[in-house]
Amino acid sequence: MTLPPLLDHIVIAGPDLAAAVDEVERLTGVRASPGGSHPIGTANHLIALTIDGERGTQYIEIIGPDPARTGTELPSKFGIDRLTGIELVAYAIHPVDIEAAAAQAAAAGVDPGPVVPLSRRTPAGDLLAWRLTHSLVPSVSPLLPFLIDWGQTAHPGLSDLPALELVAFTATDPHPDSARRAVNAFGSPLDIARGDAPRLVVTVRGPRGEVTL
Length: 213
Description:
This protein is mostly beta strands. It has one domain: Roll (2,3-Dihydroxybiphenyl 1,2-Dioxygenase, domain 1), CATH 3.10.180. Helix content is about 15%, strand content about 40%. The protein has 3 helices and 12 strands. Strands 1, 2, 3, 4, 5, 6, 7, 8, 9, 10, 11 and 12 form a 12-stranded mixed sheet that branches. It is globular and about 40 Å long.
């Protein structure tokens, strides 16, 4: 199995968070644990990922509108306001130096945008803070990762989470050669095959067997 060497987490989004969590559980047999709420009106649930039987820091984030947010408007993050069901929308990588990696990508013609702070509260009330880039998501292509740096925050993938085995993480694109060049600018190559649209594909193994999303 070949994975992006700097893979941090994979993002599944939906217009209804509870329904998204239910659907992932129906497909995989694993129910994600509550992660917390973001100031931008979203909330998430998490599932850890094991690779070749080993638990690392990789995980799946299921994100959707925070049920406790003010108002009824759907957030635009990850295109949530345009989704009709769950969709694999993005992935994050964790470079050693986020500013240097962002500058490297920009110099190669794929500008990820500025590095900005973000945070969320856990169900226990703890504040988790990190930095990330997000201007490309999902406006250009879901194949282009966003960058994340957890700093002094304990990595969410190491917390007490239910787990699935990561079997494969690949992508398709109508122009795979140019897509590979763009992804390679971030220093974390992704296996990309020819397909009818830019699309991320993840295969996991759990109580329901192998499932491809």
